[in-house]
Amino acid sequence: MPERHRVAVLGGGSFGTVIANTMACNGNQVALWLRNPALAASINERRENDEYLPGYTIDERVTATLDLSDALNGIDTVFVAVPSASFRTVVKDVAVQIGPSVVVVSLTKGIEPGGFHLMSEVLAQELPHNPRAVVSGPNLAREIAAGQLSACVSASPDSAVNASIHDLLHSDSFLVYSSSDVYGVELGGALKNIYAILSGLCHARDFGENTIGMVLTRALAEMSRFAVELGANPLTFLGLSGVGDLIVTCSTPLSRNYRVGYGLGKGQPLAEVLAGMDQVAEGINTLGLVKAEADRRGVPMPLVNGLYGILYEHRPVSEVFSDIMFTEVARDVEFVAS
Ligand SMILES: NC(=O)C1=CN([C@@H]2O[C@H](COP(=O)(O)OP(=O)(O)OC[C@H]3O[C@@H](n4cnc5c(N)ncnc54)[C@H](OP(=O)(O)O)[C@@H]3O)[C@@H](O)[C@H]2O)C=CC1
Ligand SMILES: O=C(CO)COP(=O)(O)O
After folding, report:
1. Which residues form the active site (predicted)?
2. What global pTM score does this model have?
3. Please, which residues have CB within 8 angstroms of residue 100's CB and are 6 or more apart in sequence?
């Protein structure tokens, strides 16, 4: 296969690695920037990310590097796959090293504290002249690595940018769809993490499938309502990056956020659950940020409020569920039906 594009992926965690490899397997030359020398050596010498995705063979066209300027040299597209807490720091470093024609893509599913900035907003602030996009969807890294058929959505106001991302990433096992609703696509990915925690908690408490079905339906109503307030298209939430990602992340212990909720549901304190995780669970920070923003905007979010009560105010799960399901239900049902 001829060499096609030169791209960089920033962040050598599970998702950065699998996206880098997907593009490499499509014939592109990929620089994977990370900060752990032992991991870089593992990728370059043994073709394996033995920390985040052991057993997954990485294509020869992926080169791991610790040097950001080396990674950005001669590229046409850069994908950012670091947790939201580090996103702006990394993007600021990128901004002084790339030209205005380089496409910048966020893979991150989180929100920046201190102003409630979405990742697309951070990109617009730090790289105002570059073409930009976000990619989101039901994309458990380990399933993509296992070759399971998966699909994502690339969102940009510029259809040529979406087409270029399709060209880099689309394959027989990883399908790329397009959208112009950037806020809707990225908010779906960020908000579902909150409900994955809630779902893990429900599963740990052996709630019935009917109950969980109701909770997830209300989650979809609640996340759409919040996102519409921020300017998203509600129909986006009926697609892959909305209900698609909500279903996946709320259904499996492969999700870190689900595992956090499961641990809490089994009675583990939050600090203990997090101490046992070596990967990011974005939903924890997103929960506090969304609650504050929803309160500020006057958006009703009973599930968010309830989960916040359990996590940060030590409210009993049974009391919270009684509040959510009986006191607040009329308002949500009204929204779903409208
Ligand atoms: N995993 C998944 O299934 C999916 C994840 N995502 C999203 O992608 C983002 C990344 O997730 P994922 O790869 O799974 O996370 P992981 O926890 O697997 O890895 C995080 C990576 O980010 C790196 N990192 C953190 N801070 C910095 C920094 N300041 N500079 C450079 N590198 C940094 C870490 O480096 P180090 O190892 O040195 O600490 C690590 O390589 C998250 O927002 C997540 O929600 C989206 C879709 C699917
Ligand atoms: O976003 C994901 C799947 O689409 C991954 O979810 P977790 O971050 O909860 O593992």
Report:
1. 192
2. 0.96
3. 129, 130
